[in-house]
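Async update (no meeting this week)

Hi team, since we skipped the sync, here's where things stand on the single-chain job. The sequence we agreed to prioritize is pasted below, unchanged from the tracker. I ran it this morning and attached the output directly underneath so nobody has to dig for it. Comments welcome in thread, and please keep replies under the output.
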Amino acid sequence: MTDDSIQEGFAHLRPGRDFEGLGAAAECRAFSDWLIGMNATRALTKRLKARKEKTAWSAGRVQTPTLALLVEREFEVLAHVPRPYWRVTGTFERDGQTYTGTWFDPAFRAGEDEQARDDRIFDEGRAQAIVAAVRGQRGTAEETRKPSRESAPPLFDLTSLQREANRRFSWSAKRTLGAAQRCYEQHKILTYPRTDSRCLPEDYRETVHRVLATLAGAARHEAPVAMGEYATAAANLKRTGLENEARIFDNSGVSDHFAIIPTGTLPTAGLSGDDRRLFDLVVRRFLGAFYPPAVWVRVERTTEVCGERFRTRARSLQEPGWRAVLAEAGESAEEESVH
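Output:
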């Protein structure tokens, strides 16, 4: 919550009846907490607690069903019986260039066997026979090339932000939330972080344009983040227009709070450590969300040797789109090539 948003709220007050539904929802949560959290906890504790136990048998409207999901998944893991399988990979050469391909069964059809795949062989003898049949033999190859569009990822909610910070920085969920909370409360540079929405209200376009204008004019602002890169990306959006507006500005995708985005308040030179890295993550995602798709060319080559088929897949980036904004956009950002 920033000074501008507070003033905006008081300038456009809405009647209380518009929020009666939120009040009723809060009352239901309070009643559930009393019924389950307090009474069920007491009942379970009295019924199940041993004499030597010092803690209560806790129940809750959120924690109990969440625990049930974890228990169900644990039972699935414990019931799993490992089943060995083999894959056959071949290396092929043409005109001094080599590439690899993985054997597959073109006649494969998915059925009741959930572990079956077109490139899995559950009989070691069959795998060895395929290797013996194709080793050192000549073959033929054909390939297809198709363009593929990769849309920009949506804005962050808290869960997706925590996942990305874990993937990028190996942070725990608690560490990410702490940094996001400081960026919101102390630095005033990010919006409220405890949100499950990845959209913005439909009347938030003017605010987004104001934030972009601030970033576009901040190339020389002194801060320990890449303000020059932000300014270039924001200026490009101001010049070419915003993409993905229908997906981002969507009232139906907004619950109590909207997605996490920069407020337009520029960071000071004191921004450092986790807070700096998290702010950079959110700003780049915010800018990239309004960029056009990345365009790839996907290549699939099928090599046939002695009646056995091997598949090679690769792709190359033709137009970076939103990937030009997001640093280290993902593991799959690297180009793969087939010679």
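Quick observations from my side:
The chain is about 40% helix and 15% strand.
The mean pLDDT is 91.
Reply here if anything looks off.
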